[in-house]
Structure prediction request, 363 residues.
Amino acid sequence: MNRRDFLAATAGAAAIGEAAAAPIATTRAWEIGPPGAYATMRLIADRPVTMGPDDVLVKVSHSALAARDLGIARGWFLVDKPPELVPLSEGVGEVVATGERVRRLSAGERVTCVHFAGWVDGPWSPSYYAVDIGNTVDGWLAEHAVLPSSGVVALPDEVDDETAATLAGSGITAWQALMEIARVKPGETVLSLGTGGVSTWGVMLALASGARVAVTSSSDDKLARMRQLGATITVNYRTTPNWGEVIFDATGGRGVDVVLENVGRETLDQSLLACGNNARVIMIGTAPLPEQLPKMPGFYIKNIMLKAISNGSRRMLADMVRAVAANDIQAIVDRRFTFDRVPDAFNYMASSSRFGKVLIRHV
Prediction:
């Protein structure tokens, strides 16, 4: 999406629905403030609350940070955002009130919301950026969040709040990659790069599907934790630059069947070297283009599929919620911060220390 289309989509989002009375007038919320540093984020004590007829008002219990939230707060994500934007695309809470046209949800339900709130089902369209929670419309980093009901999914008791807070970004991205696109099968091998939110969710979902898992990281301690989760092949990419060949050999020369390419084109060649015949490589990371273009070894000979994805739809999120509940899967949480320590949470997220998700406790 180019800058002109993006700005047009954002303007369209602001015009959706007519203002309606909310049961509360104001709420405490964090705004991103001027771009440049997380210290410029600002806590607003009495931010006005305005609902539309298709919105729900949610009392937030937890929110979670994703990699894109760092870029949004720093002004690096597509285009600069207004300093009044409330960030974060992942969260969970209880419905307090619903707009007059909302029939699918009721007060008292625990909910989360897919961050492309207009993507209910069907194929992806860049038009969904028009209502992108925490990016083109306000997100979860408030005591009360106003969310478009089109993207909201009710939660069963079996899914705890901390797990639910990670589903709409990291969780659904891994779900779409593995279940919707790659359609991973028992006995296949899934390679996941890194140990962040998407990767830890990818490992757990792959294992629940009966697949083997390989993981790369620059930290031996993090690789040991991945083995505790169930990964059987782990490689330190810093001490083993040819990690793609090493992983290929570790599979007995069969190669991996699926790659969660969580970094981007910078690591693509090594990912392809790890692949077996007919492997599926799902592009998730968006690291800057390296100085030397990828050579894409084996791309044609092995008949490798390369597919980019963008998060997921409400239907995918609902499917994942049912699977998480049925399999008693819980999110991997690295650290929790209180609502008044949001800049600290962003700084920690930006470090290389985390393993899994970083959460904000709102209550």
